[in-house]
Inverse folding.
C-alpha cells in the first residue's frame, strides 16, 4: 500500500476510533459491531446515551473496546464537544458514520413548519454538523473516512414523505460536495443509499409478510449492511466508491 493511503491496514485499527452518530438498535449497532470486529475502538452516540448499554456490553463482552455518549446531533455545541472528547480522551477518529434517522411519514397538508424543520434538522443539518466536525480533525492528518447513511428518499421523493425526501436529498448533496472538496486531501466521503426495508423492529411490525420475506433474505440484514461501511472505509484510495445502493436480491429496481 502507498504511504498515506486511507486503508486502516496501514495504520493499525487498535489505536484508531470510529464514531457512529445515530447509533440506533439496528443499523447503528450493527456498524459498531462490524468495526469492533476489525479491532477498532468504537464510539456510539445517540440522544439517549443510556440506550447504548446493550451494544456496549455486547462488544465489550466479546473483547472489544466500546464507548457510548449522549448527544443531540442537531446541537452544534454538543456535536463539537463530542468530537473534542473522543479525540482528546479516546483516540484519533479514523472514520465517522452519520446514521441519524428521521423517516416520519406525513401528508403535505399535515406537514407544518415545525415538523418540516425538525425532520430537516435531524436528517440534513445534523449531517452537516457531523461532517464538518469530522473534517476539522481529519484534514490536518490527511486521512479518514466520512460516511453517510442515505435512503430511497435520497434519490426520489414519494407520496407522504416530502419532508424526509427533501432532507435526504440535501444530505446527499452535502456528501457529494464534501467528497469533491475533501477527496484530494485523502478524506474518503461516501454515501450509502439503503433502497429497501431493513430488518428492524419497526419493519417487523409494518410488513404483513415480514416472516416470509426474512426467511427468503428479502429484507436487508443489519449486519450484512454494516459490512459495506467497513468495506468503504478500508477501500484503497486508487478505487474509492462515493455512492453505493443496497437492496436484497429480490428487491425490484
Amino acid at each position: 500500500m502507498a504511504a498515506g493511503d486511507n486503508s486502516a491496514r496501514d495504520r493499525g485499527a487498535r489505536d484508531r476510533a470510529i464514531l457512529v452518530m445515530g447509533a440506533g438498535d439496528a443499523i447503528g449497532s450493527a456498524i459498531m459491531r462490524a468495526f469492533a470486529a476489525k479491532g477498532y475502538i468504537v464510539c456510539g452516540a445517540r440522544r439517549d446515551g443510556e440506550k447504548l448499554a446493550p451494544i456496549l456490553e455486547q462488544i465489550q463482552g466479546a473483547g472489544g473496546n466500546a464507548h457510548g455518549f449522549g448527544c443531540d446531533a442537531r446541537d452544534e455545541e454538543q456535536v463539537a464537544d463530542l468530537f473534542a472528547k473522543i479525540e482528546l480522551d479516546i483516540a484519533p477518529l479514523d472514520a465517522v458514520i452519520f446514521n441519524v434517522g428521521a423517516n416520519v411519514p406525513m401528508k403535505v397538508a399535515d406537514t407544518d413548519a415545525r415538523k418540516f424543520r425538525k425532520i430537516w434538522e435531524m436528517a440534513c443539518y445534523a449531517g452537516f454538523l457531523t461532517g464538518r466536525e469530522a473534517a476539522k480533525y481529519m484534514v490536518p492528518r490527511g486521512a479518514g473516512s466520512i460516511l453517510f447513511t442515505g435512503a430511497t428518499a435520497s434519490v426520489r421523493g414519494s407520496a407522504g414523505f416530502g419532508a424526509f425526501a427533501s432532507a435526504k436529498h440535501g444530505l446527499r448533496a452535502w456528501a457529494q460536495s464534501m467528497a469533491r472538496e475533501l477527496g484530494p486531501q485523502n478524506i474518503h466521503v461516501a454515501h450509502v443509499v439503503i433502497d429497501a426495508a431493513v430488518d428492524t423492529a419497526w419493519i417487523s411490525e409494518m410488513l404483513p409478510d415480514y416472516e416470509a420475506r426474512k426467511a427468503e433474505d428479502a429484507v436487508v440484514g443489519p449486519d450484512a449492511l454494516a459490512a459495506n461501511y467497513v468495506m468503504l472505509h478500508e477501500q484503497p484510495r486508487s478505487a474509492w466508491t462515493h455512492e453505493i445502493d443496497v437492496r436484497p436480491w429480490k428487491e425490484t429496481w
